[in-house]
Specification:
The chain is mainly alpha-helical. The chain is built from 12 helices and 3 strands; from the N terminus they run H-H-H-H-H-H-H-H-H-E-H-H-E-E-H. Strands 1-3-2 form a 3-stranded antiparallel beta sheet. Helix 1 runs antiparallel to helix 2 and helix 1 packs parallel to helix 3.
């Protein structure tokens, strides 16, 4: 009897941990494939005959419900990758390691398409070239003289550079700190989980202002004031500010994250079609 009670307690604990893992995946804080569905199902099947009380059966049903949600997320992830013709590098590496030498050679020979090019000037090609040069107008007619306007050299003042929008009206370090504070205020006001949608932060009334804000955002990320979080499944990009600048980021090699801030994307954001 005591052994049965311990087994039940252990089973409940395992099911509760499974539910916690599934919820982490559902909230996009973990990769859907960190959970081995086959192993989890074996655990559920192992303890199912022991459940008698309604609360125990409810816990079992809740576990199955969350497992179904994770399987759905895995299916959507695979569908998205397959339609984008994407091959995960880890899966590709695993497949290569499992292949034999002869199989690798066969795949290479099947995919290898050597190119052979042969160039030769024929009589017809020479004739076409001569006709082309004869039809050209003389160089004196093609290269007409034009008057070049004289431009005087001068030193531009800071006020003139600000007027031309080459420089800002305050020091760059102050501008970055001010922009960083604006990001933190936006997250508190309109964000969720300490972050905000990238486009909701950089988006402005005009396209020029949006590009300028995207430009400043790159410095926030590069200098350790904030970080980007990308949801590959939903194709969403978020920006998350740090409470204090992380200077250790400057000592690491950073990965580039290309984000198209095009005029078309800006119009989509204005219409509410882009997150």
């Amino acid at each position: 009897m005591e052994t049965a009670k311990r087994s039940k307690a252990l089973g409940k604990e395992k099911l509760e941990r499974i539910i916690e893992m599934c919820i982490a995946i559902e909230t996009r804080t973990a990769d859907p494939f960190t959970l081995n569905i086959d192993e989890i199902i074996q655990v559920v099947k192992q303890y199912f005959p022991q459940w008698k009380d309604p609360e125990e059966l409810k816990l079992d049903a809740e576990t199955l419900h969350h497992l179904a949600t994770v399987i759905k997320l895995q299916s959507e992830w695979v569908k998205h990758r397959s339609t984008a013709l994407y091959t995960d590098p880890f899966l590709l590496e695993e497949k290569i390691l499992q292949m034999g030498k002869q199989e690798m050679v066969d795949v290479f020979l099947y995919a290898w398409s050597p190119l052979v090019e042969f160039e030769q000037i024929s009589l017809n090609t020479l004739t076409q070239g001569l006709l082309y040069w004869k039809a050209l107008a003389p160089i004196s007619d093609r290269w007409k003289d034009f008057d070049a306007a004289e431009v005087s050299n001068a030193v531009a003042s800071r006020d003139e550079l600000i007027k031309q929008r080459i420089l800002g009206d305050k020091e760059f370090a102050d501008e970055i700190n001010s922009y960083w504070q604006e990001l933190k205020d936006c997250v508190v006001k309109n964000g969720q989980d300490g972050k905000i949608s990238y486009w909701d932060f950089i988006g402005a009334d005009t396209y020029e202002q949006t590009v300028q804000r995207a430009f400043l955002t790159t410095f926030l990320v590069t200098y350790g004031y904030a970080t980007l979080e990308i949801d590959p499944l939903e194709e969403l990009v978020f920006i998350k500010p740090f409470e204090q600048p992380r200077t250790e980021i400057l000592k690491k090699q950073l990965n580039s994250v290309p984000i198209a801030v095009s005029f078309e994307n800006w119009l989509k954001w204005k219409r509410g079609e882009l997150d």
